[in-house]
Amino acid sequence: MSDHLVPHVEMRGIVKRFGDFTALHGVDLVVGENEIHALLGENGAGKSTLMNILYGLYHPDAGTIRLHGQEVVNRSPRDAIARGIGMIHQHFMLIPPLTVAENVVLGDERSGPLLREDRLAARVRELEERFHIGVDPDARVEDLPLGLQQRVEILKVLYRGSELLIFDEPTAVLTPQEVDELFAIVRTLRDEGKMVIFITHKLREVFAVTDRITVLRAGRNAGELTTKDTSPPEIARLMVGRELRQVHARTPVSGSGAVLEIRGLHAQSDRGASALQGIDLTVNGGEILGVAGVGGNGQSELAECVLGLREPTSGSILIGGADIAHDDPQRTRERGVAYVPEDRRAEGLVLAFTVADNFILGKQDHPPFSQRGVLDDAVIRSQGDRLAKEFDVRPPNARAIVANLSGGNQQKVVLGRELSEQPKLIVISQPTRGLDIGSTEYVWERLLEQRARGAAVLLVSSELDEIRALSDRIAVMFEGRLVATLPAAEATEERLGLLMAGHAEATPA
User: Fold this and answer.
1) Residue-wise over 426-465: b if at least 16 C-beta within 10 A, else e?
2) For 337-385, how does the pLDDT look when each residue is reduced to its tens digit (9 = 90+)?
3) What is d(CA 72, CA 63) in angstroms, rounded to the nearest whole number?
4) Residues in Cβ contact with 494 at an 8 Å cutoff, skipping those fewer than 6 apart
């Protein structure tokens, strides 16, 4: 800790056990006044546990917490809120039918049973103006995009007088533009005298918005750094305990020609609006084609059409020369198409099932996993043990319940199921969303292995770093159209950003 830092929050020697498992081994965290402090670590490093202790959701088994030099014990979130601590959760806790102002005051009706809506709206507007948080107090939350819903969460904690704001993975559901807007709000909070703890997996965000960094690894302090004096490789080494390997995607691969050909594809969204407008796209064997774009511009509908999950209104989707545009998902998979969905918990896994059971989803009614409609537990368990080891699922226990695994290990289960069949085409959407850098590295390496063996990969991602690191070519979508397809070597971040915002280029690449 630097000599000039004034510690307003001190957590010293924090220990937390869950049965025989020790999640925190004497962890220290010090946050100074007017500071944006990053809390980093891989999944399972103890970040959320430490913050849940500060917020009063968990009670430490040892250690002390001091606020402004005074030792405190937060027995519940109510205690933490009363002491000026607020948490903005990754999954918003809002009541959709209520207005912004009603959500802000909900649970803290200090005006008594007869709430004055005009006073509520005036107080919300006062907070909006002070902290430059633009959102209509009279709007219903259900009508707001996710970026604006997050602003409502921020207003909620400010309304309660929070001096320390904890952001838990705040950019996981935001578009790049919304991320920039959030960073501007966070800087304003600091400039207005607030303290901010910023939990994230993304090193780029650390350097964009934070002042100092605490790194946790396996429930212990791994380092305390000043952001301007460190580098991404140093932080990554502290997080994972080793040097990360460099990804080199664009080495020559002997391709096998077009695996996926899309011509004149049109499709509608769930609400009946036009989602795809004349998409023409080719993905070759031994190639990763990245699809970039701000969320909601047709990328999800494109993937769903290829998989048979969405019926196109017109156009063709050819795999191996056969038009699959109107096939169901089962027939599509039988043609050698694998799918890793963007929401692994809701669409890729059955959380209540074991690792072994999830490895055979979609194949459970075929030999060798079942005979005459009866599942063969021994075969399923043997396959599960093999794939858990091959895809480095931790713990490597095929009987573990998938819901109890970290996000990175859940993604390994999905990858193990989809990639173990040696598919011709892999459609993978947001493959590293919510994953730490170690798990991200693992996913990237598996995709490059598939490329090297000649598979075609259609990669949909909102992470430009990911798209640029892995792709051979990059297609950019805007409002349901492909506005450009260019070699990855020519796809600078600035160029992609302009294309994603709908700025057409004078000369197509």
Assistant:
1) bbbbbbbbbbbbbbbbbbbebbbebbeebbbbbbbbbbbe
2) 999 998 898 899 999 999 999 999 988 888 899 888 899 999 999 999 9
3) 11
4) none
- Pairwise CA distance, residues 283 & 306, whole Å: 12
Instruction: Say which residue the tokens 């081994």 belong to.
Output: 25
SS (H, E, C) 66-106: EECCEEECCCCHHHHHHCCEEEECCCCCCCCCCEHHHHHHC
Closest to 397 (Cα-Cα) out of 406, 388, 409, 408: 388
Burial category of 247 from C-beta neighbours within 10 Å (exposed 0-12, middle 13-18, buried 19 and up): middle
Count other Cβ atoms within 10 Å, centred on residue 372.
Answer: 5
Q: pTM of this prediction?
A: 0.73
- Burial (0-12, 13-18, 19+ Cβ within 10 Å), 4: exposed
**Residue listed under structure tokens 């692994």:** 344
Report, in angstroms and rounded to the nearest whole number, the Rg of the chain calculated over CA atoms.
24
| Token pair in block for residue 457 | 């990969």
Token pair for residue 236?
């990554």
* Angstrom distance (rounded) from CA 348 to CA 40: 27
**32-67 b/e (C-beta count within 10 Å ≥ 16 → b):** bbebbbbbbbbbbbbbbbbbbbbbbebebeebebeb
Provide the token pair at 373: 């409609």
